[in-house]
Amino acid sequence: MSYASFCSLFLLAFLVSFISYAQQQDPTYIYHTCPNATTYSKYSSYSTNLKSLLISLSSNSGSSSSGFYSTAAGQTPDVVFGLFLCRGDVSQEVCRECVVFAAKDTLNLCPNERTVTLYYDECMLRYSDGNILMDFSMNGGIILFNPLNFTSNQQDRFIDLVLSTMNQLATEASNSSRRFHARKANFSALQNLYGLAQCTPDLTSQECLECLQLSINQLPTDKIGGRLIVPSCSSRYELYLFYNETAIGRPQLQLDSAPPPVFENTGKGGNSSVIILAVVVPVTAVFLLFVAVFVFRAKRKKTVYEMEPLAEGGKLPFL
Hints:
elongated, 35% helix, Killer Toxin P4, Chain A, 2 domains, five-stranded antiparallel β-sheet, six-stranded antiparallel β-sheet, alpha+beta, 13 strands, disordered C terminus
């Protein structure tokens, strides 16, 4: 066996384990809310019912084709209602891993609260002592935005594109049986805008549309990226692809030409790193290594976002 062939086989084996490791990262935590207005004791009936509920949610997370499941456990006055919703483009395996992780995480983040909502990038888990099934809720959410702005001469065009794209997404998602849709639109010849909108499927089409319109109206559209998440729906836009395009198909681009965008830095940002590898191996092996490094960095990259919790009634503190 030649030296190059040996290096190729060694690198391939390394890549298999490397990619497997990258795919096993914990779900990306975003936010949680668990007001302590109502609590339960460790050995109460509510605690027992909650554990049964979390087991039920976890066990059904890998078989839900819609990425959504709701149920209840126990009897009044200690009944617990619960649900999970996975992002519409993730696989059943990713959905399962996220829900199982969230079910365990909730007992750490909110150890004795009766009403809890946990948000991750891949899924949401929610339970309460009140009936939250088929419930339209704009409370207990979070808004996140990238601190970078567009230059003033391009900002108006960008805001118009964000609003038109997101409102179109709201209509498409509300008319979908899964209450989910994502798409991209051209901002310039070199830059696309990516958007996603989703509701819990237990909402009616009209309720979903209303929820998304309310959330879109509060998006920080002067920023280059933003998202708003509430229990009943979520909306997000970015200048990079943040969802699995293959899982939802490849919608036709909206044609819109403009010069390449220029950003203004407000003084906050993340760190960057470069990994260079020099190995005398076949081109295929080098390509595979590049893919693996890209996947790993994408999994671990954390964009610096500003964050504002939503007040009761779904209004931001500064609106």
